[in-house]
Structure formats: C-alpha cells, structure tokens
Design goal:
By secondary structure, this protein is an alpha+beta fold. It has 15 helices and 13 strands. The strands form three sheets. Strands 5-4-6-7-11-12-3-13 form an eight-stranded mixed β-sheet, with helices on both faces. A three-stranded antiparallel β-sheet has the order 8-9-10, with no helix packed on it. The longest helix has 15 residues. It starts with 14 loop residues before the first helix and ends in a 7-residue tail after the last helix.
Length: about 400
Amino acid sequence: MFEPLGDKECCGCQACVEVCPKKCLQIGTDEEGFAYPIIVDEKNCIQCNLCNRVCPIKKNKIIPQLFRKAYYGYSTDEGDLLKSSSGGLFAVIAKEYQKKGYYICGATYTNDFKVQHQFVAPDENVEKIFSSKYAQSDVANTFAETKRLLNQHKNVLYSGLPCQIAALKLYLQSTYDGLITIDLLCYGVQSPKVWDYYLNSYHKGKQPKSISMRSKHYSWKRYAMEIEFSDGTKYIKSKNSDPYLRCYSKGLFVRPSCYNCHFKGFPRVSDLTLGDFWEVNELYPNIQSDKGVSIIIPNNERGEDILKNIESSIWYDEIDVKRLKEMNIQYLKPCNENPNRRAFFVGVSKQERFEILAKKYAQNSRIKQVTYGVKKFLYRSGLWENMKPFWNLCKNIVSPKSKRR
C-alpha cells in the first residue's frame, strides 16, 4: 500500500507514479502548483510495494560532506558558452555523447513554455536542453523511456536535479553500463504555478517565441531574463530588475521539501555534478569569468572519464577544496524558508501584479550588497585568513543564529 509523504518531505520526483504496474497513482498539484502523487484506484493495488521502494526520500539520507576533489572550467566554444547558464560544460558533454550515439534527456520548454524533461535523439538538436529553467520540471514518462531504451541496448545520458537522479536510479532497479547521469548543484526547485503566473500576468497578451532565464546579455554574474515574442519584440531585464528573478533570488516560491533536502551531500549517486562556480574570482582573481565558469565534481570513476573525454574542448583546472570549504559555501546546506513566502503565495492567489509582489517581498538589501563587496575584497587581497575570526564575531553579533521555521 502506498505510504504518502507530507509536503515537507515529498520532492515530486514522480517515480512512485511511474513504477506502479496497475496505475493506482497519478500526479496532482496543490494550491502552490507543486506536483504530488495521489491514489486514484486503491482497489486495484496488488501490494507490490514498488511505489514505496522507489521513493528516494524513504531511503537513508546522504551524510553531508564536502566533495574531496573538484575542478572548474569552461567550454572553449564561445557559442556554446553563451547559450549555457555557466561554463558550458553540459553543452560540451551532451554534444560529445550524442556523437557516440547517446540519447540525451534534460529539461526543456514545451510549446506553451512549461518546463518538462524530454529526450533528444542522437540526430536531433540538443540545444533546447541547454541553460537553466527556474521552475520544477515535469519528468513525464522519461523514467520509463530511459528503461525502455536501455533494455534495447541504447545508451542514455540523463541530466536532472539530484533528487530526480536518485529517483531514476531506484526506478530502474538495476545498473546499466549504457547509462550516464549528471546532476546539478541545486538551490531549490521553483513553483510551476508561479512561472505560469509571471508569463500570463506580467507579460499578458504576449506570446513567447523563445525564453532564456539565464541570458548573458549583460554578463554571467549579472544574468538576465530574455524573452523573444512572436510579434518580434524582445524583453531583457537583469536579475535585479526582472520581478520573477528578483523573487526567485529571495526564495519566495521554493518547494517545501527543499528546506529539508536529502540530496545535498557528496558523493552523490550521479556520475557527475555541475554548477555555477560563483566563487571563482574570490579564489582565483585572475580568471576571466564574464562569460561563465562551471564547477565540475566527479562522483565516481565514470565522472572522471567524462571529464577526460571532453578535455580537448574545455579549459579546466583543479580547485583548492580546502580554500573553497573555508568560504562557508552553500553547496551542502538546504535553503532557508523566506518568512514572506506564504504572503507571496496569497498575493499570487489574489492575482496581485507580479511587479507589486516583487516590490513588497523581494527588495534588494543594500546591506547585503555592501557586505558581499567587502568580503570579496578581503578574499582578493589575501586578507581573509587574518580577518575571518573578527568577521565571524561581527556576523554573530549583528545576526545571531536562530532556529529555522
């Protein structure tokens, strides 16, 4: 019998729905737009318990620890670099493994710009799954399709969030030599309902033709929302000006289970982990980063092999993990709940204008900007080691630790 999880635990991976042989479960959405499994045909249940066995949350938690080895780098192909969110590593990997005959699966947009996982065949254009999409992706039937392809002795490269990769591995119930998995350094997944509301209210009456949530029109670190509309007009606003990106950066519409994420630790079940290496210039001031730099974390020998297979198409170097750890990075920490989260969703349900919601709940903090600038200066000038104890003392005085809600 299916044992449902609460909204603060279920990550919405859909593995339980996909694996049920009698289709006793289906996906429904709550008032915030997040997907959860629901029982629709309890009488047909054959007590196989597969739905509970494939749930990644019901398995033991990974013990959070920093990765032992990591690299940073970027694609040497400027075209791929500009089409990607960070250093273009996924673009290089996807193209390389397409040449080897792999089917590539990742998040893309549907015709109405919902976010969904889809497969790209070896002879199809893989660029549609490049770049970040800040709304939770519907994995649809891609777990079952992955298994079908692998059982036909086809090769698959599946990219997704760490919880999705963990769910896929449990769904397959077997290891396959022809499967490669890549996950991301994930901040937290965002509400599809809020994404729809942004498009249909803030851009009301406009039909998108293409969307980039991480356009490098200004630069990598000053990324922008860029939307081309069917009437030929274009919308470009930086992350500090676009209301969706402003609210996203404040964590106003994150899935509740992300506050208790089970998948932040290392090593992970994926072969390779990729993400934005935002700290690159604090550790390596002379690296040119305007177009993006990735952090690259192999989780096993296959991950190391992937990196070796693409090294002729990228520039990369090893990271001093000890120095990275000293920066108190967020890679191992679940995100904190924004105290204005509930009020934000109430505003969405009342159809308040998106720009008003951003103004009310996503004000840019001048103090945080100044603090970040000072800390950045200390790293680049080599003064951080000496100033760190004093910095932490001031931080505890100004903002004492409190229990999370």
